[in-house]
Amino acid sequence: LKKVVSDWQLFQRFLVYVRPHWKKVVLGAATVPFSIGATLLLPWFIIRIIDDHVVPGDLDGLFKMVALMTAAVAIGYFADSIYTFSLQRTGQQAISAMRSDLYAHILSMPRSFFDQSPIGVVLTRLTSDMEALNDSLAIGVLSLFTDFLKTIALLILLIALSWQLTLVVMLILPPIYFVSKFLRLRLRHYYDLTREALAHATGYLQECLNGVKTIQLYAAERKVQNQFETKTRHFFKAQSHSNFYDAALYSVIEGITSIALALMIWYGSWQILAGIVSIGVLVGFI
């Protein structure tokens, strides 16, 4: 039976290659407080500018507030750039070390392994699959840490500003969770099929190119071409399904977010008329 490895176990294996570059990780983590602070200051400045200067018509301190908001945005971008560069550099170096270990492991395999495994399949695992792993781990997973902290910090700020509007925002969380969970499982299934189909097609192509003289000798060009088209058709179908669920995931989340935004504007307008929240608070939420 095929052993099922959890995502956490896979990520722990990846962390083994990250540990030698811990200084870059620490440098990136040191910029997180500045990034979170800038993220929190931006809506606060917007609220203060609208409520204290735009609505009353007081333009005396407007330029000062705009300058402070610009400085906060610049600090946030600078901190994010250092964080992104440090962690992506760490991820690239970890993937490079992983690729070297995998290549050394391939070289240590017995001849029976190469008799049973097409060279094209092995080549795909060492190249395109590693690039896909780089996109998923080195770029995606390592950014979850700061995104999670920013979300928690923003949630605390929103509750402090208006817990009623925060509840409206949180209404989208259950449908987003269930929809994303369903689509993510389907997306992962077809993504795995895509990688497998690509490996088989590449392996078959490599075998055909190596044995092209034998194919021509037996006039088997049409048969080989039909088999290759079948393999590429499997890849096309798997990739099409993967693209569909990937697009569906983002479009459904965007649709739910738009509905929540409309509810927030409707409910927030009622609260403004009732004198519960200010215009700046509603704009800050949006």
TrEMBL record:
Name of protein: ABC transmembrane type-1 domain-containing protein
Gene3D superfamilies from the UniProt entry: ABC transporter type 1, transmembrane domain
Residue ranges of domain ABC transmembrane type-1 in the record: 34-286
Localization of this protein: Membrane
Recorded topology in the membrane: Multi-pass membrane protein
Keyword terms of this UniProt record: Membrane, Transmembrane, Transmembrane helix
Signal peptide start and end residues: none
Primary location: membrane
Entry GO CC: membrane
Pfam families recorded: ABC_membrane
GO MF entry, a single one: ABC-type oligopeptide transporter activity
Membrane-crossing segments per the record: 25-50, 62-79, 152-179, 269-285
